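Example 3.2
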Amino acid sequence: MLLPFLDAFMTDEELKRRLSDTEDGWTERKPPNVDSDLVRKTLVAVANSVPEGEEAILFIGVADDGTPIGVDDPDHMQKKVKRWADWCYPPIRHTSRAIESNGKRILAVIVQPDHNRPHFAGPAYVRVGSESPKANEVLFDELIASRMSKARPLLDAMRKGESVSVMVWHFGNFNVLDCTVIEVTPHLAVFQPLSGNPISGDYEQILLGKAGDGKQLRVEIRHL
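Structure, written as tokens:
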């Protein structure tokens, strides 16, 4: 079943802009005769990688350079994409609709971040630039960790290179340090202060909030 509320954020004008933006890393273009395995691989890769607040789009009926080719029967292609997405595990949540460009009907398949990742259609794929490589062991651990509510903002800070304010409690006393997030696994997170040894904590020890400026992520680690 399609989820029509998901593409409420994406207007036809925005879709057409994305269609012509060949530098957009979260946009993929495929011809109308695209293979089902390639569609599943692409859907899995973007569903496993698209960050919070972003939307990935697969256009079907378009050349690599963005030239519209068109799809003869968008409704039929939409049903095929739905079936291919449902063959993935877990199924890829998406929505799709036809748009018109230069007199050609093109199917736009929109994929938003999904906390049920990682998804599989065979190996686990991720998005790196314009490629869809297999996830290595570190990336696979990050995908598993992304299912956890505490891990998601830490992964986001690590990918953006943002510092976090780490408050380490130990026997009633605490230190506050500016750190970078250097590792997020399904079980714990590791932080590197400006000097000294890395600090780690499992998710039962970690509390998340906002620092005094209301922007920086604050991490409290309570070592019992």
